[in-house]
Amino acid sequence: MTKSELVEMIAEQQEGITRREAEIVMNTILSVIGDALADGDHVELRGFGSFTTKTRNARVGRNPKTGDAVMIPAKIIPHFKPGKDLRERVDNRA
Known about the structure:
By secondary structure, this protein is α+β, with helices and mostly antiparallel strands. It has three helices and five strands; from the N terminus they run ααβββββα. The protein is elongated and about 60 Å long. The longest helix has 20 residues. The chain has two domains: 40 residues; 53 residues, IHF-like DNA-binding proteins (HU Protein, Chain A, Irregular). 44% of the residues lie in helices and 29% in strands. α1 packs across α2. A three-stranded antiparallel beta sheet has the order 1-2-5. A two-stranded antiparallel sheet has the order 3-4.
């Protein structure tokens, strides 16, 4: 599902919300989550999951074309951990 499909579903399922309003809400939510993670905070949505950041250490990788060793710097990456309710819903669906 893409972001635009999600916006369309929200607009269809909620009376009185236009597609444009649903898009504004979706963009605001994603922006706030992204800003919180960039500031080093975590975001927890009960029943859905939590967004945090993790640090990847620097390491030596390989250039797949030449086989030469390449130093990959340390970086901070976003991480999502699904909540219990979401895990159970997905597991029961299979």
